[in-house]
Amino acid sequence: MADQKKSLTIQHAQEQRAQAEALFSSIGEGAIATDEFGKITRINPIALATLGYSEKELLGEWFPKKILALTDRNVPVNLIDRPITKAFLTGKSVTEKMFYRRKNGDTLPVIITVSPILLENRPIGAIEVFRDITFEEEVDRMKSEFISLASHQLRTPLSAIKTYSHMLVDGYMGEVTPAQKKSLRTIITASNRMNELISTLLNITRIESGTINIVPKVLKGERVCEEVIKELALAANEKEITVSLKHRGRISSTIKTDSLILKEIITNLITNAIKYTSEGGAIRVEVQGRARDVLFSVHDNGWGIPEHSHDQVFSKFFRAQNTVKRETTGTGLGLYLVKGLLERLNGKIWFESTEGKGTSFYFTLPKERKTKPLTKAPPKKAVKM
Ligand code: ADP
């Protein structure tokens, strides 16, 4: 009787194992299982086909060493930054995009999700599922190329609209009535907005394709803020909003960075502060030189961002509920662009906000750029290295 029970338990365990095996092999994406030390214990046929190895070549190998992961700049990802390490360290599932090197040396873009297998809160292994996203990347590249081309083409007719509207409003083509003047001003404002939108779209495609051109030069952070504040004075005055500038501390705000990009970042942040603050509000721009970087901040006492939306603020097309109702113009692309631009300048951005009270955006820029400017697109297709 006891023997019969034992053999039933063994049979049950074997059935479970066979089921798990079948499940693992049938996952429609590449799947790799490791033990607690990161050694490969299982690998499914899709993963083998995608990476170009045989099962024998991978089983028992230390995963991070055998399968090389690369960043979009073609540099090997540090062990500490590999999703599998992060999953082991945090005990949580990690999803990231990077590049894998196949056995034949080609690289391919992949989306990876690693989940730790936990036993009493201790990782005893991990399962990684990954997908080759070469096709999606190609579609994305074509989409960016299209947006870039379309935006360039839109600029020419737009500049004609702007030029002639200005000539009409200034009376170069005869007297215009006050009502006509009002309409012409609306056309000018709308075409200015369209121009800004085109610039944003072009910048986003440049950021996403890694082709943004960075020209670092020595400048004073405070000066750039001053220039931007002057340029936005009209918009602030219209809402009777005061914009002040303060240099904090004694260390100079001199940095070596790209002035146009820095200007674009500050312009976006102050424009938002003006847009999302009620009439009569106050905006404070602060610059603080520190040992290794310069800290910029833009504080407003405006509408604030609802707490439940805080983690979406830098996502593409995000617009908070409380602002959409009151301010219809906006694309939700500004902060996404700002974050992308700051990443290219090795900077960091964060914010604090309380709905109904106000918002403070902070960003830092290193005093010296350490990495080389990225002027080349990351590998989009499987390329020989
Ligand atoms: P846009 O301003 O074109 O909508 P952004 O990406 O610049 O796009 O901003 C995204 C959203 O974040 C805004 O729509 C708004 O809801 C919120 N936001 C940004 N800056 C502020 C601010 N200073 N105060 C309140 N809300 C803000």
Q: Can you describe what's shown?
A:
With 385 residues, the protein is of the alpha+beta class. The chain folds into 3 domains: 131 residues, PAS domain (Beta-Lactamase, 2-Layer Sandwich), CATH 3.30.450; 73 residues, Helix Hairpins (Orthogonal Bundle), CATH 1.10.287; 150 residues, 2-Layer Sandwich (Heat Shock Protein 90), CATH 3.30.565. 43% of the residues lie in helices and 24% in strands. The chain contains 12 helices and 13 strands. The strands form 3 sheets. It has a 6-stranded antiparallel sheet with strand order 2-1-6-5-4-3, with helices on both faces. A 5-stranded mixed sheet has the order 8-10-11-13-12. α8 packs across α10 and α10 packs antiparallel against α12. The longest helix has 36 residues. The chain is elongated, with a radius of gyration of 27 Å. The relative contact order is 0.09. The C terminus is likely disordered. The site of adenosine-5'-diphosphate (ADP) has 22 residues, from α10 and α12.
Radius of gyration from the CA trace? 27 Å
- CATH superfamily caption of the largest domain: Histidine kinase-like ATPase, C-terminal domain
CATH class of the largest domain equals Alpha Beta
Give the helix tally: 12
Molecules bound to protein: adenosine-5'-diphosphate
Write a brief structural summary.
The protein is α+β, with helices and mostly antiparallel strands. It has helices at residues 2-26, 45-51, 55-58, 63-66, 83-90, 134-169, 178-209, 221-231, 233-238, 259-275, 321-324, 334-344, and strands spanning 30-35, 40-43, 69-70, 94-101, 107-119, 122-132, 216-220, 242-248, 254-258, 282-289, 293-300, 348-354, 358-366. It is built from twelve helices and 13 strands.
